[in-house]
Amino acid sequence: MSPIRLFARLPFIILILSLVLVACNPTPGNPASPPPNDLLGKPYLLLAGHTDLVTAIAITPDRSKVISGSRDLTIKVWDLTSGQLLNSLEGHTDGISSLAVTHDGQQIISGSWDKTIKVWDLTSGQLVRSLEGHTEGVTAIVLTPQSQLVSAALDRTIKVWDLTRGQVVRSLDTSPEVVASLAVTPDGTQFISGSLDKTIKVWDLASGQITRTLTGHNHSVNALAVTPDGKQIISGSSDMTLKVWSLANGQLLHTLTGHTGRITAVRVTPDGKQIVSGALDNTLKVWDLASGQGLRSLEGHLAGINAIELAGDGKRVASAASDGAVKVWAVATGQLENSFEGHTDFVSTVAVIQAQNQIITGSQDKTIKLWDLTTGRLLRSLTAGASVYGLAVTNDGRQAISALSDATLKVWDLAASGPSLRTLTGHTDSVNAVLLTPDGKQVISASSDKTIKIWELAGGQLVRSLEGHTDSVNALALTPDGKQVISASSDKTIKIWELASGQLVRSLEQHPSSMTSVVMLPDGHSVVSGAIDNTLQVWDSTTGGMIRSLSGHAEAVRALAVTPDGKGVISGAWDKTIKLWNLNTGQAQTLYTNDEAIFSLAFSADGNWLVCGDYAGRVRVFKWNEK
Question: According to the model, what pLDDT value does residue 29 have?
Fold first, then answer.
């Protein structure tokens, strides 16, 4: 097993437990902010999908885009087919509770716990109008066929809005209970509300009068839908059941059981034959409406489902969940078609592709992602098939080589979304690091099989294997002239090798702890290593002696990078901090304090950008200032 996986296991268990706690207590809140004294300041970009619970979802009428809303305060627009992130809308000051798209597909409507409803231009992402009138957080919104908006809030009111003028047409008192869900009949003459008091109410939209109250659930009614013919209501409840009712007389027709968590979302296919539901048991289920029988269960989310939406043709359903992911499924088969998200596990490697103005990231989640350095937009996601522990990019930025947990390296065309160009096989355990020689012709890899291998990039042939370490080789660096490779290992040594001959030049062996990372300074003789004993070590590669041991991190050092001026080193660690070290004095400054462990660091070639990846799967981009 790779030391990366082994070392990460305990925190992963802690992360899963925290996700469960969040799913059980989805109270709106703001993302954590770094301490005010961080020298790097606020990140210029945060590269991720949603970074908190995804709580709302909608699909455009033309079925080309998915819109998701989150507790991270953002609304994101995704291409339904490719999964590309098209836009991220910001303006709410609290989490998004509900979403709708206008019938012409031109505008997005969002309801928020910040008490407002906002109307956005879908194409530009610009805010068109903010509807203010609720005095507490908005819980649900629904658009009528006549393009009026009905909203419910914690202030125990339902409001009907004229979207054109942005004014309230009617305000209805729902005291003493809070309305949690809304639906509207196909003809737009009636709307239905579901409340925390376990009841469903049918309202006449024109008069605002309640025409019928349905009782039968044993807990709050969180989700509602009306069949396309307007004859039946489907309700989902925290009592873990779905109920089918006659709209005409209020009679209960079916009770559907099968979910093991509270039901949060329900939709009916356009042909009126099937129901799709989502629940906090992490699953979506498809049901036969006529018989009430369960047809299939859609499983893949790591946390509870908060919202679902059917595409207009009813063939696909999109789901939003507390794991931060948006997924698209085929209703007929239950097959997962796409997942729109940032990385969902720790980001083990990052690099800046200066030639293309892009950032490339690799993760334990088995994906490689390309991001636009200027906008932070996700450009492409490549499925690696195994956890990605290292990345190297050719000088022209057109190809990348990934080091993978399945003992292989893969070569990728970064302009394509298809499979890898070739696979390099020869290692017998996970590949933990990868480099390219300065001329871009050879690949150097380090593995848990205790070896370093050199390959021809063009054909993938193995040139030679360097053997001498007695434990996993975890990190690699090149000397400035590109003639020697430096390896750091769990055997507590650093070794320097001649690339041309494969001969061992020197072994640095004065440290009592496993090495996790290594860099060489431009002076050609100073080597800096990071270790699991929380320290950094500075070495003289010409003598093999340790010059200095640097202490300051409270937990294991995970990543190192040489500052653009070549005089210092920054480090990232499990203690969630990034530190800048003066190698002459051994003193450190804390540049940034994250909310998760730092797993990877890289500077852009021009020295303007610092990129870091963390344990939660997020990538932060900072503007670098030498001062």
Answer: 30
- In 206-312, DSSP assigns E strands to 210-214, 221-226, 232-237, 241-246, 252-257, 263-268, 274-279, 283-288, 294-299, 305-310
Q: How far apart are CA 69 and CA 52, in angstroms?
A: 10
Q: What pLDDT was estimated at residue 506?
A: 95
Q: Which two tokens stand for residue 593?
A: 């304090």
Structure tokens at 4: 């990366």
- Scanning the structure block, which residue is given the tokens 């309640």? 210
**Host H or E run for residue 7:** helix 3-24
User: Looking at the DSSP assignment, which residues form a beta bridge with residue 403?
Assistant: 390, 409
Task: State yes or no: cis peptide before 176, omega within 30 of 0.
Answer: yes
Domains for the chain: give ranges and CATH numbers. 49-340 (2.130.10.10), 347-623 (2.130.10.10)
How far apart are the C-alpha atoms of 315 and 331, rounded to whole Å?
Answer: 5
Q: What is the per-residue pLDDT across 530-549, written as a single tens digit (0 to 9) for each?
A: 999 999 999 999 999 999 99
Contact between 488 and 475 under an 8 Å Cβ cutoff? The reply is yes
User: Are the C-beta atoms of 455 and 409 separated by less than 8 Å?
Assistant: yes
What's the rounded Cα separation, in Å, for the pair 337 and 597?
Answer: 32
Give all strands of the β-sheet with 241-246 in edge-to-edge order: 221-226, 232-237, 241-246, 252-257
**CB-based contact 443:460 (threshold 8 Å):** no
Which pairs count as long-range contacts for 59-64, CB under 8 Å and 24+ apart, including other chains? Answer: 59/101, 59/309, 59/310, 59/311, 59/312, 59/318, 60/101, 60/105, 60/122, 61/101, 61/103, 61/104, 61/105, 61/312, 62/105, 62/312, 63/311, 63/312, 63/313, 63/316
Alpha-carbon gap, residue 320 to 317, rounded angstroms: 10
Low-confidence ranges of the chain (pLDDT < 50): 4-37
Distances (CA, A) of 361 to 354, 398, 427, 549: 14, 15, 23, 30
Rounded Cα distance, 520 and 562, in Å:
8
Taking the whole predicted model, whether its pTM rises above 0.85 is answered as: no
Query: Hey, which residues does 284 pair with through a beta bridge?
Result: 278, 298
- pLDDT number for residue 5: 45
Residues 190/184, Cβ–Cβ less than 8 Å: yes
pLDDT of residue 2: 56
- Report pLDDT for 13: 27
